[in-house]
Amino acid sequence: FPPVSFLSLHHLCLLLPSLPTDATAVRVLLSGDFKVSQAETRPGNDASDQLGAAAMEASLRAHRPAALLIFAFLSLLSVSSSAAQEIQILNAERRIDLSSQVAIVFLTLKVENTGKAAASDVLLAFPPTEAEHLAEVKAQAASGKKRKKTYAHLIVEPTDVPDAPNGAKGFRLALHNPLSPGETTTIEVLYMLTHSMEPFPAEISQSDPQLVYYRDSAYILSPYRIKQQTTFIKTPSTNVQSFSRVEPTNRAGMELKYGPYEDLPAYSYSPVLVHFENNNPFAVVEELVREVEISHWGNLQITEHYTLAHGGAKLKGVFSRVDYQSRPSASGVSSFKNLLARLPPRVHSVYYRDEIGNISSSRLRTDSRKSELEIEPRYPLFGGWKSTFIIGYGLPLEDFLFESTDGKRYLNFTFGCPLSGTVVDKLTLKVVLPEGSKDPSAVIPFPVEEHMETKYSYLDVVGRPVLVLEKKNVVPEHNIPFQVYYTFNPIFMLAEPLMLVSTVFFLFASCVAYLHIDISIRKG
Amino acid sequence: QLRLSVNAARDFTLRIQRQNRASPHSPSPPPAAAAMASKPVTAPVPITWYPTLAVFMLSIGLLITASFFIYEATSSRKTRSLPKELTTGALASFFLGFGSLFLLLASGVYV
To answer: Could you tell me which residues belong to the region Disordered (chain B) (predicted)?
Structure first.
């Protein structure tokens, strides 16, 4: 009974003394269609809502036996949903930053536990279109006063919200200290959306700026009731062609303000559309295959195969090199011609080539803390254009391979694409372990898909085990270290020189055998 | 309240950006492992010795190979002794094998 499970203890107690203020909200919830704008069906005004809350408190105390009976009935129906309804959000503020190709959303929630039991989780909900473009969700709980805030990182896990309408996806935040009844806490959530800005017009000429659509909701989608909420949208320039109005809406320079909206029920949603100019480079790496080859003789060799594309509005018409070079501020403003790769320090043997050969338009700057490789593809990238290339480099082994006290060795390396400011649609990271390694396992802070392969490289007999990690929708926030553990018996390192020694000895032995064998036909 | 929340948003993103900017450098070992005092794994032979070792081992190996073939050429069927041939061959192959390994490592083919 999905509609019935929406009803919580509070809603039923409100229906008992037959207060009309929330009945309309309950009716809309029962129909399960949260896409309908809630503006018309919102409860009347703040005063009647406070009255409703006070009456609810009184009715709870008065109808205790009846309340217990109803609670038992509801708990039989669906146990999990009752936990979701016992939390309400007093104040929610959402800041959406649309300055680059990745939409960065910062959500501040002031959560109150209005139920009887301590709440250990807080749920977040996302519409299904947003959920498939979600690159990263991070959360932290703030505690302390304004100046002395301390932050505790929270673990975020995707979860099934059983009564979510229209396929909304949920995420569960596990709180460090369970929230006791009546207590409030502040939670900050940061999440990033890739490919959420659609270029419109989809095709532009060389001298046009790039305009994009951003679709979102004026109301924050949440499984809880939100007492007060505001949404701010920051655009990269003041050129905003149009935006939907969900009153009260304000626009000041580069910031759009939707809100504040009072007292919205759970899963309220009101779609809005913002059409604005975004000329920041839409550098999308459609596929990246990174191979990290570990050699215990002292080197880590990394080879990266890139398929780079411009993910913005496609170029229509011809590309005029004369216009592009003579008037750079008016021509090709949304194109990009170079990218920066941040590499670890002490990198050696860096090469940048493609299928034709070496690409010489690159610069490597090293210092003791980092190396920067600035690459320029053979042509500037306009909308819809692609470029494939290979970057390879070597790193000293002692910076990345360590031995833990239980005898296992582990590689400590960064996941993610070294090119800054890019979004990777599909990243495949292959860690090639030396021949004779056993029990490989990876420790990564975010979910990836793993499987094993074998690679035959120099002087291999049985092949090298390869641990393959795959992830979709990778943003620069994923450039964090991860570890791959494996066991290796150092005696296996002798296998390679002994193979060479035995080959040469075979040559000598055949020479000796040839000289000793007598195959001539003669007497005696 | 507006300014405070703007600052909070900026602080959060700055904190995350600082973490990410720190990581492209040689990432520090994870805290748990650092507590366990993990030591870096280095090559069994210092890398700067590879070219020197390659040259010396190959030259010694080639000298012994030369002595092997001179022995083969100057001895007749009766005076030849198999153990001496095999030991010379084994010694030569040991030095040549290791020498070629170090030659491969010195030229950048990290096998």
So the answer is: 14-36
Please give the full DSSP string across A15-76, using - where no structure is assigned: HTTT-STTHHHHHHHHHT-TTS-TTTTS-S-HHHHHHHHHHHHHHHHHTHHHHHHHHHHHHH
Q: How far apart are CA A162 and CA B33, in angstroms?
A: 39
**Are A295 and B110 inside 8 Å of each other by CB?**
yes
| B111 interface with A at CB cutoff 8 Å | yes
Q: pLDDT digits over A65-106, tens only?
A: 555 555 555 444 444 444 445 788 899 999 999 999 999 999
Q: How does pLDDT run across A138-175, given as a tens digit for each residue?
A: 888 877 666 556 666 777 777 776 676 777 788 888 88
> Does A497 lie at the interface with B, CB-CB under 8 angstroms?
yes
Of A425, A444, A442, A418, the C-alpha closest to A135 is A425
Interface contact A351, partner B, CB < 8 A: no
A502/B25 Cβ within 8 A: no
Render pLDDT for A431-487 as a digit per residue (tens, 0 to 9): 999 999 999 999 998 889 999 999 999 888 899 999 999 999 999 888 999 999 999
CB nearest to B89's CB, from A342, A477, A505: A505
Let me know: does A98 contact A197? Beta carbons within 8 Å.
Answer: yes
Picking from A404, A419, A459 by the largest number of B CB atoms within 10 A of its own CB, the best residue to mutate is: A404
B101 interface with A at CB cutoff 8 Å: yes
Query: Are A106 and B13 a contacting pair at CB < 8 A?
Result: yes
Residue of A189, A504, A520 to mutate, testing the B interface (most B Cβ within 10 Å of its Cβ):
A504
- What pLDDT is attached to residue A36? 36
Q: How many CB atoms lie within 10 A of CB A407?
A: 9
Best of A293, A371, A402, A406 to substitute, by most chain B Cβ atoms within 10 angstroms, is A402
DSSP state letter for A354: -
> Left, alpha or beta for A195 (phi > 0: left; psi -120 to 50: alpha)?
left
CB-nearest partner of B5 from A93, A401, A477: A93
pLDDT over 60 (residue A55)? no
Share the mean pLDDT of chain A.
82
Q: Closest partner residue to B42 among A397, A479, A497, by Cβ? A: A397
3-state secondary structure A364-412: EEECCCCEEEEECCCCCECCCCEEEEEEEEEEEHHHCEEECCCCCEEEE
What ipTM was estimated for this complex?
A: 0.78
**B48 SS3 class:** helix
Please tell me whether the peptide bond between A199 and the residue prior to it is cis, using omega within 30 degrees of 0: no
Give the nearest chain A residue to B80 (CA atoms). Answer: A516
Chain segment A237-254, per-residue pLDDT in tens: 999 999 998 888 999 889
Beta bridge partners of A485: A410, A441
Spell out the residues 6+ positions from residue B36 whose beta carbon is closer than 8 angstroms to its own.
Answer: A404, A405
Q: 10 Å Cβ neighbour count for A495?
A: 15
Interface of B with A in 3-62 (CB under 8 A): 4-6, 8-9, 12-13, 16, 19-20, 23-30, 33, 36-44, 47
What is the tens place of the pLDDT at every residue in A117-145?
888 888 888 888 888 888 888 888 877 66
